[in-house]
Each structure stands twice: as C-alpha cells, then as structure tokens.
Design brief:
This protein has 10 helices and 7 strands. With about 350 residues, the protein is mainly α. It has 3 domains: about 140 residues, Four Helix Bundle (Hemerythrin (Met), subunit A), CATH 1.20.120; about 50 residues, Ribbon (Seminal Fluid Protein  PDC-109 (Domain B)); about 130 residues, Four Helix Bundle (Hemerythrin (Met), subunit A), CATH 1.20.120. The strands form 3 sheets. The chain has a 3-stranded antiparallel β-sheet, with no helix packed on it. Helix 1 runs antiparallel to helix 10. It starts with a helix and ends with a strand. The mean pLDDT is about 90.
C-alpha cells in the first residue's frame, strides 16, 4: 500500500527538520573552526594528510624509513608539505626518496603545520557536513515520491535546491582548502550554508508545516527587516575576513580592534538600522501586550547580537563570542524568512 499524501507530507516535514538541524550544526561547527583558526587543520580535501582517519600525533605526518606509504599520503619535512605520487616503500633517507621521485612538493598551497587539535576540529566539521547530506538526500527522495504518486511537486524544488547547494558548498570547501582559506571563498561558503538552511525551511513550509500567526501591519516591513539583517550578516563576514588578514600577519588579538580598517565601524553602527527595521513591525505586538512566541524569539536574537557586539568592543573580541554572534545572526535571518510566510492576525 502506497503512503497517503498526509502521511508522506508528515515524513517530509520530519526529515526536513532533521536536515535543517544537521545543516545548522554544520554552520555552528564552521564558526568554531573559524574561532579556533582550524580551517587548515587538514591541508587536503576530502582526506586529511591523505588519510581517511586524521593523524593524532606529529610522528604520523613525518617521514620514516622502511615504511609503506599509499598514494596521496602527505608528510611535513623541511618545513614543507610533500605528497606521495604512488604507493611505495620508503628507503633509508628522505633525501634519497625525494631524489627518486617518491615524494613531490604539494603545490596547491604552502601551509605546512600540524596541530592535532586544529586537525580534529576541522575533521569533525567535515564529518558533520557529510552527515548533513544524508537527510538532505532522503528529503529529495521523499519529495520526489510525493510528486510521482500524489502530484504534489511543491516540496521537491526547494529540497532539490538545498541538495544542489550542499554539493556546491562541499565543492567550495575543497577550493577553500586548496587555496589556503581564500577570503572571498569563505564568505561565499557561509552564504551557501545560509541558502541550504533557507531552502530546507521552504521545503518544510511546502510540505504543509503550519504558518505562524504574528501581529504585522504589512509584510513589507518584514521584508525590509530581513533584507537589513542579511546585509548586516554579509557585512559581518567582511569584518571577519579583515580579522583573518591580521591573524595571518601575526597580530595579537588585543590589537585587532585598533588595526582593523575604519569601515568595520559601519558594521557596528548598522546594528541600529537592523534593530529599527525589526521594531517597525514588532511594535504593534509590543504596544498591545500580545507579543507572540515568534516575536519574542526575534527580540531575544536581537538582544543576543547586541550583547555579543558589546563583548567584541569591551572585551577585545573574545573568541567564544564569535560563533555565538554568527549563529545569532543566521538565526535572525532565518526567523525573518520563516515569518515572511506568516498569516497576519486580524
């Protein structure tokens, strides 16, 4: 017996929630990677130093005599990365092996450092990304089934878009590693993740998830607030990339605020525009005393962003505040997007 339209839609909604949470965990893990500076913990992709399971000790990324090495295995010697072009058994000295072509310079980047903490933080981030693909793929399969059996094609298109975006983000992740964290690619990587989350929410809505009821005078105010929040999020990634340049130059955290370009203060000031844009449509509910749970969520997200922003200025950009600030910004944009489909309360 084929599943009924209602039961299939129920399963699509369940898997869409799992896919959304999985993708959100990837965003959180990615922000922790950025916070800890672990982005190059694995110098290659999708493996890590040419291994399926990352190394845990420095001895595992060093050359050893009379040792079997598989094609693609990477080591650090002479302050450089080397890769094995073929399977081979090492000889008595590294210089002799290098001279005979058993090791060649890794040319995609020159980052030759090993830190087991950074390596495993980056590996867990990649692992979460791989796991996020499973519910996304299942979501497409269920949505396709709904289309074929019940002519309900609406959930398929956003689910398929999310899967394609997931593949694009994975490919971009490889390009980021190959380019040693090219700044522009990092911002695009984050926007791709945001697109995945938004499309999965759209799948949830198209599968029949109930729309919230909020006190709104006009959806134009929500569109405006959402646009401001998204622009502020992108602006924030540019500030983060300016910080990356300082990190690359070895600048101490205590000096970041002083050495950031002056335009970063525009991001700080723009928060008031974001706050004002949201208050324009939150005000009726606040004034009437009938604020909904969704509206309280928006208020909490804005308050959290304000608090973490203050922490940046007063406490010298503490590392722990960075992923929290990013996750709150993503949460604000997604909540705005979800409420764009809300039913206005009469």
């Amino acid at each position: 017996m084929s599943p009924s339209p209602d039961s299939l839609s129920l399963w699509i909604r369940r898997i869409a929630r799992v896919a959304f949470v999985s993708a959100f965990l990837v965003v959180l893990a990615g922000s922790i990677v950025r916070m800890t500076g672990s982005g190059m913990g694995c110098p290659d992709w999708p493996q890590c130093f040419g291994l399926t399971i990352p190394p845990t000790e420095e001895s595992q990324v060093r050359w050893h005599p009379d040792t079997e090495y598989r094609e693609g295995r990477m080591i650090i010697e002479r302050d450089s990365l080397w890769v094995a072009p073929t399977d081979h058994l090492s000889g008595s000295t590294f210089d002799a092996d290098r001279a005979t072509g058993l090791w060649t310079h890794y040319t995609r980047h020159d980052y030759a450092h090993f830190n087991p903490f950074h390596t495993w933080v980056e590996f867990i981030n990649r692992l979460l990304g791989a796991f996020a693909g499973l519910p996304a793929l299942l979501l497409v399969a269920l949505s396709l089934l709904a289309g074929l059996r019940h002519r309900n094609w609406q959930p398929l298109w956003p689910a398929l878009g999310a899967l394609i975006a997931l593949g694009f983000v994975a490919w971009l992740g490889k390009k980021v590693v190959d380019g040693n964290l090219i700044p522009g690619s990092i911002t695009l990587h984050m926007l791709g993740a945001l697109a995945i989350l938004g499309l999965q929410l759209m799948t949830l809505r198209k599968a029949g998830a109930p729309a919230p009821i909020v006190n709104v005078q006009s959806r134009r105010w929500i569109w405006g607030a959402a646009s401001l929040a998204l622009a502020q999020l992108v602006f924030g990634t540019q500030v983060r990339e300016a910080v990356d340049h300082l990190i690359h130059d070895g600048v101490a955290r205590s000096e970041w605020l002083e050495l950031l370009p002056e335009w970063w203060k525009g991001h700080r000031t723009a928060f008031w525009a974001v706050l004002g844009g949201h208050l324009l449509w939150l005000w009726p509910g606040l004034r009437s005393g009938r604020t909904t749970a969704w509206e309280w969520m928006i208020i909490a997200l804005l308050a959290g962003q304000f608090a973490t922003g203050l922490a940046f200025g007063w406490l010298g950009m503490p590392a722990a505040a960075q992923p929290i600030h990013l996750v709150l910004a993503v949460g604000l944009v997604l909540t705005d997007g979800w409420l764009l489909g809300a039913r206005p309360q009469q």
